[in-house]
Write a structure and sequence with these properties.
Shape: elongated
Radius of gyration: 33 Å
Strand content: 5-15%
Helix content: over 70%
Number of domains: 2
Structural class: mainly alpha
Oligomer: single chain
Number of strands: 5
Order of helices and strands: EEHEEHEHHHHHHHHHH
Distance between the termini: 93 Å
Number of helices: 12
């Protein structure tokens, strides 16, 4: 059955108002574009009540025309029977393919500025989250009955006991590698005995706490983000608030306390394992028996090296716990958001741990420790 003929779209000027008539449909796509292109710049409103027929193309063209001209949302008026179509199109009007990425200097500077702005907001959010967590910890210190003991012990098991074999194994192997490389270089100077100081100082000051923090950053921070993020996606966090409970006390504080307790213990285990790895290489490759290794270690290593390493453990624990929990609470409710936040938590924790360790090393060196 042939289509009924339709009149082409027309555009008339009435003062500052553009009055439309005719058929603004796909059949007249070229005429629609021409009519809008001929509209004067001084128009302040568009009257589309005179349009006879209207389809998706016409609505999209008019909406984009109004947005390009900077007119307010109420500057475009439609007939009553067209409003349902317009409302449906407005919901998806902005879902157009993204523009191709530009590679000019201006675009690079714009991306740099946007990245700096986003990172600045992340830093502000982390500092705010730290303050809120410290306030809740202070309240729990005044009212110990608010502490979730069962949850805290559960997370201590997950964070500490389950990670202990991996921490010990990797620390043992890294200690062995450091001793092997150090002995190879020191042998050229006839000073292989100094491999004891190399392994001892390296693990007591840096590698013990750093390896442990990096392992927990990848293992624990991602787990915290995924656990809390799934709760946000399922609206369980909203349900907690509805019940009058505090998500920080319920979800964040037990995880923070578990890390603050277990990371120093894991750091001590990593130090011991690293020294054992160095002792094994010294015994089998360098010819330094374990007794001589321990005597040399006792004579040359000072207590301050151990204290420097242990002092950094609570700081790293706080960083890992805060970032992991904060990223979980910032999940937007989609699988993509959960994956992005989990990746972000691992990257942020590892980067910040290494940065803080470098700053602490420089500071302790400057003060003579």
């Amino acid at each position: 059955m042939p289509k009924a003929p339709t009149s082409p779209p027309t555009l008339d000027i009435d003062g500052e108002t553009l009055r439309l008539s005719g058929s603004w449909t796909l059949d007249h796509a070229g005429n629609v574009s021409s009519a809008l292109a001929s509209a004067p710049d001084g128009a302040a409103a568009v009257d589309a009540t005179g349009i006879e027929r209207l389809d998706t193309l016409g609505v999209l063209q008019l909406l984009r025309f109004v947005h390009r001209r900077g007119m307010p949302d109420d500057a475009l008026g439609f007939r009553e029977d067209h409003l349902a179509l317009v409302a449906a199109i407005e919901d998806v009007a902005d879902d157009r393919p993204k523009k191709r990425r530009e590679y000019g200097v201006a675009a690079a500077l714009a991306r740099l500025g946007e990245t700096m702005h986003v990172n600045g907001r992340e830093i502000v959010a982390l500092v705010s989250f730290l303050g809120e967590s410290l306030v809740k910890l202070g309240r729990i210190a005044r009212q110990p009955r608010r502490l979730r003991v069962t949850s805290t012990v559960h997370h201590m098991e997950q964070v500490g006991l389950d990670a202990m074999p991996l921490v010990a194994l990797l620390s043992f192997m890294v200690g062995a590698v450091i001793a092997f490389l150090g002995s190879t270089i020191l042998a050229e100077f006839g000073a292989t005995l100094f491999v004891v100081e190399l392994v001892g100082i390296a693990f007591l000051r840096e590698f013990g706490v750093l390896l442990t923090a990096i392992l927990l950053a990848g293992r624990t921070a991602s787990a915290f983000t995924a656990q809390i993020g799934i709760m946000v996606t399922r609206e369980e966090v909203d349900a907690i608030r509805t019940l009058g409970l505090d998500p920080i006390e319920l979800l964040v504080i037990p995880r923070l306390l578990a890390l603050l307790v277990m990371l120093p213990l894991l750091t001590f285990i990593a130090m011991v394992a690293g020294l054992l790895g160095g002792m094994a290489v010294a015994a089998f490759e360098v010819g330094i028996p374990p007794q001589a290794f321990l005597v040399r270690l006792d004579e040359t290593i000072e207590l301050r090296h151990f204290l420097v390493g242990m002092a950094k453990a609570p700081v790293f624990a706080l960083v890992i716990g805060l970032i992991g929990c904060l990223e979980g609470l910032q999940v937007q409710g989609t699988a993509q958001s959960l994956g992005e936040r989990t990746t972000s938590s691992v990257v942020q924790t590892i980067s910040l741990v290494i940065l803080l360790d470098a700053v602490a090393a420089i500071w302790f060196m400057q003060v003579g420790w």
